[in-house]
Amino acid sequence: MRFQQTVFSNPRRYTNILMSQRGTTTISALVVDDEQLAREELVYQLKDFPEIEILEVGTNGLEAVQLIESLEPDLVFLDVQMPGLDGLGVIRALREKGVALPYFVFSTAHDEYAVEAFRLEAMDYLLKPVEKERLEVTLQRARREIETRHAAEVRVPEPAAPAPAPKPTLQRTKLLVRSNSRNLILDAHEVIYATIDDGLITIVGTHFEGHSNYRTIEELQSNLDPNVFWRVHRSYLVNINRIREVIPWFKSSFQLRMDDKKQTEIPVSRIQTKRLRSMLKL
Question: Which of 78, 109, 112, 114 is nearest to 93 (CA)?
């Protein structure tokens, strides 16, 4: 398989992948606050907790939604009052999109939002300025909750993944793709990856790019060979035979560089990272 040959042909990158997995389990986190001093102070305090891996910092609610969708953190420290979209609105927006929610810790100078925050199932609510002792209590709770969630994910039996296998007659070898007002019929093996944005699925192939008439990635995936097409992220479905390179990303996640003309880099979700490691026998 081209995927495995390409990965192992780069010893230095393979070594980096191995090294990235030898450390202890970390808690990936985002810090989102429109006040620069507040962001910097919280990031500075979090550096005293080695298990916390800060993936990125954001400055407003809209940015928070984008970062959470793309990075899939375990924990988000979120200001309540921010321009454009406040912290409470961030959770509502993610729920409307059907995004799997991380754990949220709200941080604010105002306590009147606490009831609404907990109604939206926030893990904790910190008042600014955040005291280190209070932050430590929050992180102890976060650690317990996240370890429980991770353990539950690990217990999910891997053999259950190829569930579509009993329906081989529904697997399609041809796909209809709309491109420049034309309806093209293409071989499924030509598809490099598919992605969805605002309900529209884009299919990228060797010599084409167009839109699919399927409504969801799940619907498209269920009609393709599950041994070839892999849902690596909620927004991406990839042909594993067209993966050119595996790239370490941050400390415990990866991106896939695909074999299309643009050499598109696609994120691998935290949950699917487990399957990636299994496929590579790491």
Answer: 78
